[in-house]
Protein: Respiratory-subunit NADH dehydrogenase subunit
Amino acid sequence: MIENLVEITSDQLLAETSKSKYESYRFVTSTCIDNGDDTIDVYYHFDKDYEMRNVKITVKKGEEIPSISRIFFSAILVENEMKELFGLNITDIAVDYGGHMLLSDEELSSPMLRQQITIEQRGGKQV
Structure:
C-alpha cells in the first residue's frame, strides 16, 4: 500500500500537479503498471521535506494523458520513457523524443506492456 496516495482522473492531473508545485513539492518520478486488461495505472511521486505525496491515475490504453512537463520540466525524461516502453499517449511533452529516446525502429514497440498471446486451434489441437 502506498502512503499519502491521492487517486484522481487524468482530467485532474494538471490541477493536482500545479497544486503540488504551489505547495513547494518537487517532482521525484513517475511509474507505471500494466494491469493486464485494457488499463494502466500511472503514479506520480512528489516530495517535500522527506514527505511523499503520490498521485495515481488509471487510464485506458490509448487514452490521452496531459504532460506535466510544463509544470515540472524534469518530467520530460520519465514521460518519454513511459511513452516508449508502455505506449502511453502523453500529449504536449516539453521535449518529445517521438518514441526514440531509448528504442530504435527495429526494437519491439512498447516492450513493457503485457503481450496478448493468441493460440490458434485446429482440429482440437493448439497450433
In short: The chain has a mean pLDDT of 86. The first strand starts at residue 5 and ends at 7.
